[in-house]
Predict the 3D structure of the following.
Amino acid sequence: MNLIWRILKICPMPRVKIKEPSSYVHQCEIKVRVTDLNYGNHLANEKVLMYAQEARVDFLDAHKMSEIDFWGTSLIQGDAAITYKSEGFLGDIIIVELGIDDVSNSSFDFVYKMTNKTKNTVLAIVKTRMVCFDYEERKVTSVPKKFKALSK
Amino acid sequence: MSHTCSKKVRGFHCDAYGHVNNARYLEFLEEARWTAFEEDKVVEAFDAIGLQFFVVNITIRFKSPVLPETTIDITTSLGETKRKTISFIQEIHVDGNLSTSAEVTFVLFDKNTQRAVMINESHLAYFKNLSDA
């Protein structure tokens, strides 16, 4: 049995509870590189947040958008929560599914389900709170209607 | 009581948006934890009894961006402990202003039994310099 699964079996109540969305709207694949590993010879914990950004940018690119040009505004990250479920190793293929949740006037959640396709395990669940922000005016803006439509 | 260390942010820590990338904060926090543990010889002590730290959860809140050439102060203190988990509260300050706060939760993993162990007083004693108690 995978080591992390053993840990989780013993610790069944992780501190962070991330609610998964009812569906995911995008997915991409990331291969674990040698530079993604740490001294434990497994995927470093901070790389998971980088994978989330990679998936987010890939999703935005699919809609011809970016973090800077998000239907006329920009995105900044307000917070993040990560629950680590299992390990990743060199060459593993990670499927990152991206969902949208909890859309409010000026912010929303991206939820990322990362599955280790090679090991057939869930790697991590991540949530990032994205805030719509006008860099020129230096103020929070409304979530664009076109994006809201996507999230429904 | 908390441990504080300082670090100068360099250009290579920053991303295309000109500020520290959100994932890089996790590296800063990890470096600060290792520094705190190193000074108290925590890693050697846990290694001697066959225990390793495994991160199981991280929550992080980004209050304001950190720019290149800024000196940041990172504080680390003991947070909540539960039956099998132990948390550390970490904050990044710039000129005394809070930039980032995080809670990082670990289990202590026994290399021999390959299981997470119960947190006990003897484990917590190693973190007395990071605790208010």
